[in-house]
Design goal:
alpha+beta; twelve-stranded mixed beta sheet; 18 helices; globular
Length: 542
């Protein structure tokens, strides 16, 4: 059993799954006591499949590397929530690579810091910023869609006025444009270094950046063993903020939740997330660790259905599934209360111009059977229910409960476990008939969530292939009204697209997840960010 391992055995192997990849001597050996003080050991269920945010199919853990190893022009100020958690302020920006930002009527101009340097010592220039923005809007997939969500769509919009002046010309008035410049995608890359490693077939050097960090950020990757370990070292020349307290981050992939918990309880690991909610609840009650739980901003865990293929092209089938879902069992047996229900709104309750908000579906097996019969599937059907194995601690028990509930109305759902490294690729093929996933909008606005998930322009995360001209008009109308300050029209459109989403129900909201992080008592400085990943720059060890 893992619990019988001695401390030095873990420190040599990290975990049974990573033993072959980790052969260095013990990190916390007595001879390296000082290393123990300024090294952070993070353990999680899964790790990055790519360390370039612009890469094809880069998964969520990959965002964590980019956030810490690259800088952006601007970022967000922080605010303190009533529970003491430091939380990004959606409406307040601070400078990073830019020292000044001037927003005009149809453009925004940034003055760059003259002392900013990439990790190889070369200066950061406006030409690097333009090249990076050009890259983001050209490579396709998620990065390009993310930029377009803020009306950042064409290379011609980005102008290097001189070495230290960069301008973005607006295609249209869009209140999402400035916030979109502060997310992870418009990170600034060392264009000179990437151009040297580009080829005719790979003009943006995606293969090189997939395995090498080429930014100006506070950390740089010094070792990456996919599926096992990432080691990041502090960039001693970084000067865009206070010098980070943590000199080295060792991030290890430990697939077993029981092993991760044991490492925390014995003090071998400093931080972990993605534990089962039962473990978080028990660790919180035990009081020996700091447990921070924060609702995902603009985030939902949901069941999605491919509406282009039978039987899920039939709205009554989708509604039947919505009535079959064992919502409260999921809240109790999977989440242990660490989540906000997104179901069971009172019938007739007025829709609000906010998101997320609960729908009116509840578990009603009789109603589900009736709808399935009306749809012509009285005897049920067979399908597959897919989930991301990289987040199995929540997804697997959730899918088992849904599988059992669907069986009660005649739907035989075979569970399909997709490895985390492949999940985004498989999801984006838009062929999965039934699946569970999480979407959390980086920009905390209702229309932003719906642009990504419901708009018919075939957005990356409209993985249900849902098409509705009425929905598109409402989403577009909300965006236009927000950008012109027409509050009444904005609220009308938001309420309209929420009502339509719940009526057509191409995806079934289940709950608003909590971001749960467990830390040793001597770890401080945790901040919640829209991307839900760790920011090492502010973390400290006592």
């Amino acid at each position: 059993m893992f619990n019988s391992l001695k401390r030095r055995e873990f420190l040599k192997t990290a975990s049974a799954a990573a033993a072959a990849a980790v052969s260095a001597p013990a990190v916390w050996s007595p001879a390296k006591a000082q290393d123990r003080k300024d090294t952070l050991l993070v353990v999680s269920e899964s790790g990055p499949n790519n360390i370039d945010i612009h890469g094809r199919g880069t998964n969520v853990p990959g965002y964590e590397v980019t956030w810490n190893c690259y800088d952006r022009l601007i970022s967000h100020e922080m605010k303190t929530l009533p529970n003491g958690v430091e939380y990004y302020d959606r409406d307040k920006f601070k400078m990073e690579l830019a020292e000044d930002m001037k927003v005009g009527d149809m453009s925004v101009t940034f003055k760059l810091r003259k002392d900013a340097k990439f990790q190889d010592g070369t200066p950061v220039t406006a030409q690097d910023v333009k090249w990076s923005f050009d890259r983001a809007v050209t490579v396709g997939g998620f990065p390009t869609f993310q930029m377009a969500a803020g009306s950042l769509e064409k290379a011609e919009q980005f102008v290097a006025v001189d070495d230290h002046t960069f301008r973005v010309d607006f295609l249209r008035k869009d209140r999402l444009t400035i916030p979109d410049i502060a997310v992870v995608v418009p990170s600034v890359f060392n264009s000179g270094l990437l151009k040297k490693n580009a080829t005719a077939d790979d003009p943006w050097a995606l293969e090189y950046a997939k395995q090498n960090t080429v930014g100006s950020g506070a950390y740089k990757v010094t070792k990456w063993t996919p599926g096992a370990e990432v080691i990041m070292e502090r960039n001693e020349a970084w000067n865009l903020g206070p010098k980070p307290s943590v000199r080295r981050v060792i991030w290890r992939m430990v697939p077993s939740a029981g092993n991760r918990r044991a490492l925390l309880e014995r003090g071998d690991a400093d931080i972990s997330y993605e534990l089962p909610n039962k473990d978080f609840a028990e660790l919180r009650d035990a009081g020996k660790l700091n447990i921070v739980s924060t609702p995902f901003s603009n985030g939902i865990q949901y069941l999605g259905m491919n509406v282009t293929k039978p039987p899920f092209d039939n709205v009554k089938v989708r509604q039947a599934v919505a009535y079959a879902v064992p919502y409260q069992k999921i809240m109790d047996a999977v989440l242990y209360g660490l989540g906000k229900p997104m179901f069971g709104a009172k019938t007739g309750a007025a829709t609000e111009a906010i998101w997320p908000q609960p729908h009116a579906y509840n578990t009603d097996i009789a109603k589900a059977k009736q709808l399935l019969a009306e749809a012509g599937y009285a005897n049920g059907f067979e399908t597959t229910l897919s989930f991301d194995l990289g987040f199995a601690t929540v997804n697997e028990p959730l899918c088992v409960l849904v599988q059992e509930a669907l069986a009660q109305i005649g739907i035989k759902a075979e569970i399909n476990k997709i490895p985390g490294a492949n999940w985004r690729t498989e999801l984006n093929k838009k062929v999965l008939p039934l699946y569970t996933n999480v979407f959390s909008g980086w920009l905390d606005y209702p229309e932003y969530f719906f642009i990504w998930c419901y708009h018919g322009k075939n957005s990356v995360f409209n993985t249900m292939s849902y098409q509705s001209k009425a929905m598109d008009a409402l989403i577009d109308g909300a965006g236009a009204a927000a950008s012109t300050g027409n509050t009444a029209e904005y609220e009308k459109n938001v309420k309209g697209f929420v009502d339509l989403a719940f009526a057509d129900i191409p995806r079934i909201p289940l709950f608003q997840p909590y971001s749960n992080v467990a830390m040793q008592k001597n770890v401080s400085g945790y901040q919640y960010w829209f991307h839900r990943r760790l920011d090492y720059r502010t973390l400290k060890k006592g």
